[in-house]
Amino acid sequence: MGGSIAPGVGVALDALVGRTALLQKVVMEPPPNAIGRNTAHAIQSGIFLGYLGLVEGLVARLKAAMPHGERAQVIATGGYSGVFKNHAPVIDHVAPLLTLDGLRILYDLNA
Q1: In whole angstroms, what is the distance from residue 64 CA to residue 68 CA?
Q2: What mean pLDDT comes out for the span 2-19?
Q3: Per-residue DSSP letters for 11-64?
Q4: What is the pLDDT of residues 66-95, one digit of tens each?
Q5: What are the residue ranges spanned by the domains of the chain?
Q6: What is the pTM of this model?
Q7: Element spanning 94, H or E
Q8: Is the distance from CB of 76 to CB of 93 less than 8 angstroms?
Q9: What is the pLDDT of residues 24-79, one digit of tens each?
Q10: Torsion of CA 81, 56, 73, 93, to 10 degrees
Q11: What is the helix (H) or strand (E) element at residue 109, kind and residue range?
Q12: Which helix (H) or strand (E) element contains residue 10?
């Protein structure tokens, strides 16, 4: 059917920190407020809340484009997927190792 590709939140954070002179890596968690009152909270606001918006907006658009999309299950995967689960109601399940699990299944089927 198709899909969508976006950079992961870890890649985005690494790029932000790696391509600026003074910004430091922060803990991936929601900031205390959407308006960051210090540099760490401002980064968390931009990265964490920004990616929440990306996920929520993308899921809404993908479901709208699919026949019977309202019934689609959303599975978050990757290293930070668990961090976002409690903050993104659009996520139905978390499977951080989904790609590796799929590769194992394929290997078992072909062994």
Answers
A1: 8
A2: 90
A3: HHHHHHHHTSSS-----SS--SSSS-SSHHHHHHIIIIIHHHHHHHHHHHHHHH
A4: 998 888 999 998 889 989 999 999 999 999
A5: 9-110
A6: 0.84
A7: strand 93-94
A8: yes
A9: 999 999 999 999 999 999 999 999 999 999 999 999 999 999 998 888 999 998 88
A10: 20
A11: helix 98-110
A12: helix 9-18
**One-letter identity of residue 101:** D
Helix (H) or strand (E) run with residue 82 in it: helix 81-85
Q: What residue type is 103 in one-letter code?
A: L
The one-letter code for the residue type at 79 is G
Which two three-digit tokens encode residue 34?
């959407």
Q: Return the CATH fold of 9-110.
A: Nucleotidyltransferase; domain 5 (3.30.420)
